C-alpha cells in the first residue's frame, strides 16, 4: 500500500481530471459506493474459484460478527447499488467510478495491495453498439494521454453459458491429456473451473496448453453474430485489435465480449485495462435480468506508463509564480493576493521566512516556478513589480503593478 507523494501527486491529479473529462464527453455519470461490502457479495459475483476470492480478499469480522471485505473491484458494488436503488430495471445507465481497491497479492511493479481503478459500467443495452462505445471510450483515454501507440487491444468472446459448458468439456479432455505438465493450481482448477487454467500466469502452464481448443469454435449463433458485428464496427471506427481466443478474464461473471488493453512498456504486469460483458450478473445478484458491459483500468499502471514514457515535471511543480520581497512584506502580500484574484489559473507561491533575494530565488527555483516577482522598497513606493523569468533566456523587467497580471500570463503560458 503506497503513499502518494507530492513528486507524483500532480500526475495523479492530471490523470484523474483527464479521465473525468473523457467520461463526461460520453455522457457517463459517476457512482460512488462504500469501500467495504458484505463478503458474500464478492463470493457470489466474482466466483468462489478465482484468484481474488480464493486468496486475495481482505476479509474480516466486524463487531456484530458480520463478514465484511474491502472491495477488490468495482463491478459487484455497482450492481449491488444499482439493484438496491432501482437504477437498473427497464432503463439504461452509463456509469463510472474511480477509487481504491484492495487485494492481498505479492507486491511487485504494477501490482499492489491497495491500488486504484477507474471503471465504467453500462446497463440495459444488449447490442454490440455499446460494446464498441465502451471500447472507443477507452481508446480515447489513451489518445488523451498521448499513449495510443503504447497499447494494443485484445478481444475475445466467451459466448453463452451453454457454449461455455460445451467448450468446458472439450477443454477438460484436452487438459487431462496433459495433466503431468500442469501445476497444482491448474490441476485443481481443471476440476473446479477449467477455463481459469487458460488465465494461468505460469509460463510453463501457458506453454503446455498452447494448442488448446479455441472457445471461438464453440460459440452459439447469437454470440457469433454479436462478436462478428463487434469486430466489424471496431474496424469501421478505425480501432485495431487482435482476436485472442485464450483471453478469458480472471472473474466469473463475464459472457460474450471480453477485452484487454495491454502494453509492452511495463514488463510483466502489462494489462492496463480489462473488461467485457456480464449479462447475467444483475439477475444473479437479485435484480431483474439486465445486460451489462464495462471495464476497469489500473490507474497505477497508467501513471507508471506516463512517468516511464513522458516528462512529468510539469505536472508536479508546486508553483508557476514565486513572489519574493525585501523589507516590503505587506506590499508583497497585497500583490500576491491581487494576482490570485486576477489570475485564478496560476499557482502563486509567496516566499515566507525572510532572507536576501539570492536565497529567495534559490527557493523559487526549487518550486519549479517559471517566473519570480521581485519587490523592494522602490517597487512598493511607485506601485511597480520586477519580473524575472527563471527558465529560458528572458530578460528581467520592471512593470506597473496594473500590468503585472498580463505580463505574467504571457510568461507562464
Ligand atoms: P492481473 O491479471 O494483472 O492479476 P486481474 O485480471 O486480476 O489482473 P482485473 O480484476 O481485471 O485484473 O482488474 C482490472 C485492472 O486493474 C487490471 O488490468 C490492472 O490494470 C489493475 N489491477 C488489478 N490488480 C491490481 C493490483 N494488485 N495492483 C495494481 N493494479 C491492479
Ligand atoms: Mg489478479
Automatic annotation (TrEMBL):
Q: Which domain of life is it from?
A: Bacteria
Q: What class of enzyme is it?
A: ligase
The UniProt catalytic activity note for this protein reads:
tRNA(His) + L-histidine + ATP = L-histidyl-tRNA(His) + AMP + diphosphate + H(+)
Q: Which residues form the Aminoacyl-transfer RNA synthetases class-II family profile domain?
A: 12-344
Q: What cellular component terms from Gene Ontology apply here?
A: cytoplasm
Indicate where this protein resides in the cell: Cytoplasm
UniProt-listed PROSITE patterns: AA_TRNA_LIGASE_II
- Keywords in UniProt for this one? Aminoacyl-tRNA synthetase, ATP-binding, Cytoplasm, Ligase, Nucleotide-binding, Protein biosynthesis
Q: What's one GO BP annotation on this UniProt entry?
A: histidyl-tRNA aminoacylation
- The main place the protein resides is cytoplasm
State the EC number(s): 6.1.1.21
Q: Where does L-histidine bind?
A: 73-75, 103, 117, 121, 249, 253-254
Q: Which GO terms describe its molecular function?
A: ATP binding; histidine-tRNA ligase activity
- HAMAP family xref list: His_tRNA_synth (MF_00127)
Tell me the NCBIfam families matching this sequence.
hisS
Family classification: Belongs to the class-II aminoacyl-tRNA synthetase family.
Summarize the subunit comment.
Homodimer.
List the protein's name. Answer: Histidine--tRNA ligase
Give the species: Alteromonas confluentis
Amino acid at each position: 500500500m503506497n503513499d502518494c507523494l507530492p513528486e507524483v501527486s500532480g500526475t495523479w491529479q492530471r490523470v484523474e481530471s483527464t479521465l473525468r473529462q473523457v467520461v463526461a464527453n460520453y455522457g457517463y455519470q459517476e457512482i460512488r459506493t462504500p469501500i467495504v461490502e458484505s463478503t458474500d457479495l464478492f463470493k457470489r459475483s466474482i466466483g468462489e474459484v478465482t484468484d481474488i476470492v480464493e486468496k486475495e480478499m481482505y476479509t474480516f469480522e466486524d463487531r456484530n460478527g458480520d463478514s465484511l471485505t474491502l472491495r477488490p473491484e468495482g463491478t459487484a458494488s455497482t450492481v449491488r447499488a444499482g439493484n438496491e436503488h432501482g437504477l437498473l430495471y427497464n432503463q439504461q445507465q452509463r456509469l463510472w467510478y474511480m477509487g481504491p481497491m484492495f487485494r492481498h497479492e505479492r507486491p511487485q511493479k504494477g501490482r499492489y495491495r491497495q491500488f486504484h481503478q477507474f471503471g465504467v459500467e453500462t446497463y440495459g443495452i444488449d447490442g454490440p453498439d455499446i460494446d464498441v462505445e465502451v471500447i472507443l471510450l477507452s481508446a480515447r483515454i489513451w489518445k488523451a494521454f498521448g499513449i495510443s501507440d503504447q497499447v494494443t487491444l485484445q478481444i475475445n468472446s466467451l459466448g453463452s453459458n451453454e457454449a461455455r459448458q460445451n467448450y468446458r468439456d472439450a477443454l477438460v479432455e484436452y487438459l487431462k491429456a496433459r495433466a503431468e505438465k500442469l501445476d497444482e493450481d491448474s490441476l485443481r482448477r481443471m476440476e473446479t473451473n477449467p477455463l481459469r487454467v487458460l488465465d494461468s500466469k505460469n509460463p510453463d502452464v501457458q506453454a503446455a496448453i498452447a494448442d488448446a481448443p479455441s472457445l471461438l469454435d464453440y460459440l452459439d449463433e447469437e454470440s457469433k453474430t454479436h462478436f462478428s458485428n463487434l469486430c466489424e464496427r471496431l474496424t469501421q471506427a478505425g480501432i485495431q485489435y487482435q482476436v485472442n481466443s485464450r483471453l478469458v478474464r480472471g472473474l466469473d461473471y463475464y459472457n460474450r465480449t471480453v477485452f484487454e488493453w495491454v502494453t509492452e512498456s511495463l514488463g510483466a504486469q502489462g494489462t492496463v485495462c480489462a473488461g467485457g460483458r456480464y449479462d447475467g450478473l444483475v439477475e444473479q445478484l437479485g435484480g431483474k435480468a439486465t445486460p451489462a458491459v464495462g471495464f476497469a483500468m489500473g490507474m497505477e499502471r497508467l501513471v507508471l506508463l506516463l512517468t516511464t514514457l513522458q516528462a512529468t515535471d510539469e505536472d508536479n511543480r508546486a508553483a508557476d509564480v514565486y513572489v519574493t520581497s525585501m523589507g516590503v512584506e505587506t506590499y508583497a502580500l497585497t500583490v500576491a493576493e491581487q494576482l490570485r484574484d486576477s489570475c485564478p489559473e496560476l499557482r502563486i507561491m509567496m516566499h515566507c521566512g525572510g532572507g536576501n533575494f539570492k536565497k529567495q530565488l534559490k527557493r523559487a527555483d526549487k518550486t519549479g516556478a517559471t517566473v519570480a516577482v521581485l519587490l523592494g522598497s522602490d517597487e512598493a513606493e511607485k506601485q511597480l513589480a520586477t519580473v524575472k523569468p527563471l527558465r529560458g533566456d528572458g530578460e528581467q523587467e520592471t512593470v506597473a503593478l496594473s500590468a503585472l497580471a498580463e505580463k505574467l500570463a504571457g510568461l507562464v503560458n
